[in-house]
Amino acid sequence: MGKVLIGFFSFTEVTDPGEHRSYNEWHQLDHMPEQYPIPGVVFGQRWVSTPACVRARAYDGPALAPIHYMTLYLMGEPLDATLEEFRALGGRLRAAGRFHEHRRSRLSGPFTVTAMSAAPRVHVSAEAVPYRPNRGVYVVVRDGATTPEGAADAPGAPDGEDGMFARELLEVDGVAGIWTFSADGRFEGLGWRPGAKTITVCYLDAEPLSVASELSAMVRARSESEHDPPLLAGPLETITPWRWDWFEGGN
After folding, report:
1. CB-based contact 174:211 (threshold 8 Å)
2. What is the pLDDT of residues 133-142, one digit of tens each?
3. Confidence of residue 1 (pLDDT cuts 50, 70, 90)
4. In whole angstroms, what is the distance from residue 109 CA to residue 230 CA?
5. Mean pLDDT of 122-136
6. Nearest CA to 175 among 146, 143, 144, 218?
7. Which distant-in-sequence residues (6+ apart) come within 8 Å of 189 by Cβ?
8. Three-state SS across the chain?
């Protein structure tokens, strides 16, 4: 596995309620596997915001409220070539009729890894957290992006108030580790313009809904004290292949 420098996010809405099963079949069995032969693609995972996860959100701004899924590809060098091939592959698959048409990306693009940390109890390094099995994630998306100089070279534990908040989150039983990503203007020349945003991903080894209330309360308290509401804050569940029935039967 190469050194991870960026995370490519896609927050996706399925636009036809009857197409969730076909979307998941396409993404897990066709689309995502095709990304791994690209040099620089290190790892990828997608999570679902079930109806119960939506109800457990702390913040649900209009731009991201409709999303059903979040995908995260971790990428390393060669970054420019990887992103160019990533885009080109999407075009080739679409031309071949291998692209799902009932989807809309609400936010997508590459974000630089700016900080990472692991809970001491998990016994793995912060760099290894995304590869450790998880039951889901708790994600916070905020306006504003700060990419510290050298962050892409050696991201470590966050400092200052962000570091204090991360340590508080890591004390919650069920939070295994935290990675933070920030939008970076250097990718605009390649056509990626997700806007100035910061994304925090808390990797969970507890059921997401079992810790969502505690994490949401912590996010609300910080956001209210800073008068800085996130665009989105809430849990998503890990997807098990062929178990795609969350949106069936009025769940």
Report:
1. yes
2. 999 999 999 9
3. very low
4. 18
5. 96
6. 218
7. none
8. CCCCCEEEEEEEEECCHHHHHHHHHHHHHHHCHHHCCCCCEEEEEEEECCHHHHHCCCEECCCCCCCCEEEEEEECCCHHHHHHHHHHHHHHHHHCCCCCCCEEEEEEEEEEEEEEEECHHHCCCHHHHHHCCCCEEEEEEEECCCCCCCCCCCCECCCHHHHHHHHHHHCCCCEEEEEEEEECHHHHHHCCCCCCEEEEEEEECCCHHHHHHHHHHHHHHHHHHHCCCCCEEEEEEECCCCCCCCCCCCC
Q: Which amino acid is at 28?
A: Q
- Prediction pTM value: 0.93
Full set of structural domains in the chain with CATH: 6-238 (3.30.70.100)
